[in-house]
């Protein structure tokens, strides 16, 4: 039986091998109202473009808009999906997002548990 140190080493080795080749991403977008965040989450889930969307907030965003510094309370959506679905996700978010210029960015998930990735694969495998 493996001890904890051996198990950790095995996971770290596997994660190192995965590197940027992971097929999964997290997509981030922010909105002013929780109801808009929930609408985006449900929209993506119903279209099978995401396995999960976490809604975090309210958060404080500080940014420059039209040459002036702004500070807003927002809700952050963290969408879990496949890298190959990014274009469809971006388009879907733009379809219903209330902002004129929404933040829509993605980062690769470079490591994670096989069980979680298996669950994600199952939840979004029948995506359009």
From TrEMBL:
Family: Belongs to the CutA family.
Name of the protein in question: Putative divalent-cation tolerance protein
Listed GO MF terms: copper ion binding
Protein's organism: Candidatus Giovannonibacteria bacterium GW2011_GWB1_47_6b
Pfam families tied to this protein: CutA1 (PF03091)
Lineage: superkingdom: Bacteria
InterPro entries, per the entry: Ion_tolerance_CutA (IPR004323), N-reg_PII-like_a/b (IPR011322), N-reg_PII/ATP_PRibTrfase_C (IPR015867)
GO BP terms: response to metal ion
């Amino acid at each position: 039986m493996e001890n904890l140190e051996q198990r950790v080493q095995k996971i770290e080795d596997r994660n190192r091998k995965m590197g940027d080749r992971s097929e999964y991403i997290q997509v981030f977008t922010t909105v002013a109202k929780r109801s808009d965040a929930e609408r985006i989450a449900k929209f993506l889930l119903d279209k099978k473009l995401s396995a999960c969307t976490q809604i975090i907030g309210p958060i404080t965003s500080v940014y420059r808009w039209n040459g002036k510094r702004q500070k807003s309370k927002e809700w952050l959506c963290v969408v879990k999906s496949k890298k190959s679905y990014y274009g469809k996700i971006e388009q879907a978010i733009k379809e219903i997002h209330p902002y004129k210029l929404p933040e829509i960015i993605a980062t690769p998930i470079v490591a994670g548990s096989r069980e979680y990735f298996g669950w994600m694969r199952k939840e979004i495998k029948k995506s359009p």
